[in-house]
Amino acid sequence: MIRNIQQRTIQIGIVGAIVLSFFCFRAIAQTPVEFEQRAKRLEQLTQGTTGLNGFMRTYREAMQLMDEANRQAGGITSMQTMSIKPAEAPEKEMDRRREIINSQFRQAKNMMGNFSTDTEKPQIPEAVPLEGYIIVNGGEKELFYNEVKTDLLYTIKERFVGNMIVLHTFDTTKGVFDRKKGYEIDSLSTEINVSNVMGKKCTRWSSGSPQVCSRWAHFLRYEINPGERYPQFRSGVVSAESAENDQIKVTTNAPSVTFLGDDSKTNLGMGCFSAAWALNRSEFEQLLKQGERSLHKDIGRPMGPSPGCRPGSTMTLYLKVRKEPEECKDMKSVELTIVSPEDKSRHVFSDEYLLSEHSNKLTLELEARTVPERYADSVEWTIPSIEGSNRTIIPSSTSLTPKGRKLTIVYKGLPEDNNEFGRKIVKATLKVDSCRIEKTREVQFFYPRDEKNNPEKKYPNWFYYWKQTPAARPFGQNVRIEYHCAGIPIDKCTCLQQGVIGQYNPYYSGYKTINVCNLKTNTWDSDTFFVQLPAVKRSEPSTLSERNFFPYSYIDTYAIAVMHEFTHFNNFHTFWPEGWKESEDRDEDDIPDRLEQEMGFRPGIKQTFWEGVDLGGDEEFLTLESTYDYQIGTFDEYDWGKPGKNWPK
Question: Which residue, 187, 188, 391, 624, has most beta carbons within 10 Å?
Answer without folding.
Answer: 187
